Amino acid sequence: MQSLATMPLFTSPVAENPAMHEVMRRYHSRHKAPGQCGSANVQYVAAPLPVVWSLVRRFDRPQDYKRFLKGCRLRSGDGRVGSVREVTLVSGLPAGTSTERLDALDDERHVISFSVVGGDHRLINYQSTTSLHEGGGGEGTVVVESKEAAEKGYSLGENIDTSSISSTQRDE
After folding, report:
1. pTM
2. Fewest beta carbons within 10 Å, which of 31, 51, 60, 128?
C-alpha cells in the first residue's frame, strides 16, 4: 500500500462542498479564549477518500502518512476511542516522543481526533482533529487538520462536538 506521505497533491482547489463546510464548522472552528491558539492545514491528495481514510483512521500507524514520525506503539487500548499511543519522532526535532489519546473516531464522517497527554516536548493542552472530504470529482481527497493548544495553566475545555457520534464510537 502506498504511503499517504508520498501520494501526489492536487494543484488546484476543490469546488465548494457544503458537507465539508459543515464538518469545518463543527470540528475545526472553535472560539479561542485567552491563552489558546490554533491552526488548520488543508491538503489535496490525489487518491480516493476510502484509500486515504484507510490510512488516516489507523491510530496505531500515524507514521504511514506523517513524515516526521519514526514509529508508534499502542500503550493501551486496541485502536478505538480511549486508546493511548506513544509515537517516536524522527531525529532532529526538539522532542523524541509524544503520548497521545484517541478522543474521536467517526468512520461515517471521516473524522479522527487525539489529545497529547505526555511526552518529552513543550506541547501542553494540545489537540489535533483531522477530517477527510471527497474532492476532485471523487478521485481525490481533501484532508483538513486543525490543531489547538493552550498555554500552561489554561484549558482547551470540551473541544469536539461528540453529540452526533454514536456511543460505541466514543466508548473505550
Report:
1. 0.74
2. 31
Report the domain count for the chain: 1
pLDDT along the chain (172 residues), means of 10: 45 52 69 74 92 97 92 96 94 83 96 92 83 86 86 52 36 34
Range of the domain at 111: 36-150
Q: What is the CATH number of the domain that holds 40?
A: 3.30.530.20
- What Å distances lie between residue 68 and 24, 62, 155, CA to CA? 25, 10, 27
Does a structural domain hold residue 159? no
Note whether residue 69 is domain-resident.
Answer: yes
E-strand ranges in the chain read 36-45, 69-76, 84-89, 97-106, 111-119, 127-135, 140-150
> What Å distances lie between residue 113 and 65, 100, 104, 140, 159, CA to CA?
15, 10, 5, 22, 10
Grid coordinates given for 138:
471523487
Tell me whether residue 114 is in a domain. Answer: yes
Strand partners, 86: 73, 99
| 69: Cα separation from own chain's centroid | 14
Say how many C-beta atoms besides its own lie within 10 A of residue 95's C-beta.
13
